[in-house]
């Protein structure tokens, strides 16, 4: 029975990832993961937006999308979080799907996006 449940859970996660549905991560959970150095964050808002202000340490998907495997950790179980503009934005799916296609198993979405991050009073950094 345990084995069957494990298989069903794995199948559900695979289907969800293919459908573009990635688990959400809260701002506080993401802050903790960043502080612990346990996440790669991908900004999908475009290079100009990334330059104006992004979550500290976030990778610019526009600049790194074609070589995403080079900026992601070697551990395919590592946490990868994609975000875009806000709760209604679906652009994050491009990065999340690209990471999943590369074999990453712990891909999440911060649905609050950069707007929610800023509204929560969190710091951003500018890119060059």
List keywords for this structure.
128 residues, alpha/beta, Oxidized Rhodanese, domain 1, 4-stranded parallel beta sheet, 7 helices, 4 strands, 45% helix, 12% strand, globular
Condensed summary:
The protein has 128 residues and is α/β, with parallel strands linked by helices. The protein has seven helices and four strands; from the N terminus they run ααβαβααβαβα. It has a four-stranded parallel beta sheet, with helices on both faces.
SSE order in H/E notation?
A: HHEHEHHEHEH
Instruction: Summarize the amount of helix as a percent range.
Output: 40-55%
The CATH class is Alpha Beta
Apparent shape: globular
Rounded to the nearest angstrom, the distance between the terminal CA atoms is 53 Å
State the domain count. Answer: 1
Radius of gyration: 15 Å
Tell me the fraction of residues in β-strands, as a range.
5-15%
Report on this structure:
- Mean pLDDT is 89; it is low at 8-19.
- The chain has one domain (2-119): Rhodanese-like domain (Oxidized Rhodanese, domain 1, 3-Layer(aba) Sandwich), CATH 3.40.250.10.
- The protein has a four-stranded parallel β-sheet, with helices on both faces.
- The protein is globular and about 45 Å long.
- The protein has helices spanning 2-18, 27-35, 47-52, 61-64, 68-71, 92-101, 113-119; strands spanning 39-43, 59-60, 79-83, 106-109.
- With 128 residues, it is an alpha/beta fold.
- It is 45% helix and 12% strand.
């Amino acid at each position: 029975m345990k084995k069957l449940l494990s298989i069903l859970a794995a199948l559900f996660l695979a289907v969800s990832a293919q459908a573009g549905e990635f688990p959400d991560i809260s701002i506080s959970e993401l802050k903790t993961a960043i502080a612990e150095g346990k996440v790669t964050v991908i900004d999908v808002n475009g290079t100009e937006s990334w330059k104006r202000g992004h979550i500290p340490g976030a990778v610019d998907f526009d600049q790194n999308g074609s070589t995403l495997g080079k900026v992601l950790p070697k551990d395919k179980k590592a946490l990868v979080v994609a975000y875009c503009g806000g709760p209604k934005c679906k652009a994050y799916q491009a990065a999340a799907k690209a990471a999943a296609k590369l074999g990453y198993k712990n891909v999440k979405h911060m649905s609050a996006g950069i707007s929610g991050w800023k509204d929560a009073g969190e710091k951003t950094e500018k890119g060059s």
